Amino acid sequence: MATVTLTLDEYEALRALIGSERESEGATLAAEEKKPRKASAYSKRYGKEFKKVSSSYKKKNGQWMKNGFRDAVRAAHKLAKK
What we know:
mainly alpha, 3 helices, elongated
């Protein structure tokens, strides 16, 4: 293997070049990802059912009961399937 030595200026120039290429790649990727995905009919039903059910799995102060979130998710999935 050959060993390559760089001066500090050459190293910084190389790092700047790599960084600018990454930024330009990120800009093109970000431009492509602007359109959000459409929510499925099931996920809309699930969201509505979760909002209805969640209050019965919470305490009076608004915190979740023990295993309340998990139980609310399961109940909402069960209702959304119907």
